[in-house]
Amino acid sequence: QVHLVESGGGLVQAGGSLRLSCAASGSIFSINVMAWYRQAPGNERELVAVITSGGSTNYADSVKGRFTISRDNAKNTVYLQMNSLKPEDTAVYYCNTQGRTVVGASFSSWGQGTQVTVSS
Question: If you average pLDDT over residues 96-115, what whole number do you get?
Answer without folding.
Answer: 96
